[in-house]
Amino acid sequence: MPKREEVPSEYHPLLDWYVQWCRQTGANQSKDWANDPLILLIGSGDHIWADEHADEYVENLRREEA
Question: What is the pTM of this model?
């Protein structure tokens, strides 16, 4: 979690919400990251743009939609 003083004050309510949410859900307890479904997705789409820069990939997608 970022340090409060390093975050613009307009986002402090979001930080407050997050702290409260962690307390209510127990999200601040240690996690089993090895089995977390979102963590397991890291790198799963690398092959999609392996041969082109991510910005070029997005531009190509936008051209296809037009």
Answer: 0.40
